[in-house]
Write a structure and sequence with these properties.
It contains 4 helices and 3 strands. By secondary structure, the protein is of the alpha+beta class. It has a single domain, classed as 3-Layer(aba) Sandwich (Hypothetical protein yfbM fold), CATH 3.40.1760. A 3-stranded antiparallel sheet has the order 1-2-3.
């Protein structure tokens, strides 16, 4: 967990503040990623074996869940990449938290 911790627990730990240089570095990292390669790496079986937190149960089959997760990556990754790029282009840092 990089960044400077701020305040108390907001769900899964403290919020963290990342300075402008860290935001730019993260933006460069995201820019270097290939979306389809990321989508292709989604592997629910492997995620379960590695005990990735918050793996769902429920009525969906593993194949259905994996397909939904791939679509979520296709939708969300470009939004994250573009947001981080936009903020770092403006000379802003980032505030992150998980709740």
């Amino acid at each position: 967990m990089a960044g400077v911790p701020l305040g108390g627990d907001v769900g899964y730990g403290e919020a963290r503040l990342h300075d402008v240089a860290s935001a730019r570095e993260f933006g460069r990292f995201l820019e270097a990623q290939n979306l389809e390669a990321l989508v292709a790496r989604v592997d629910i079986g492997e995620m379960r074996r590695r005990r990735v937190y918050a793996m769902p149960g429920g009525p969906l089959s593993e194949a259905q869940f994996e397909s939904d997760l791939r679509e979520s990556v296709r939708h969300s990754f470009p939004r994250l990449r573009d947001y981080v790029r936009g903020m770092s282009d403006k000379g802003c840092g980032l505030l992150t938290w998980v709740s």
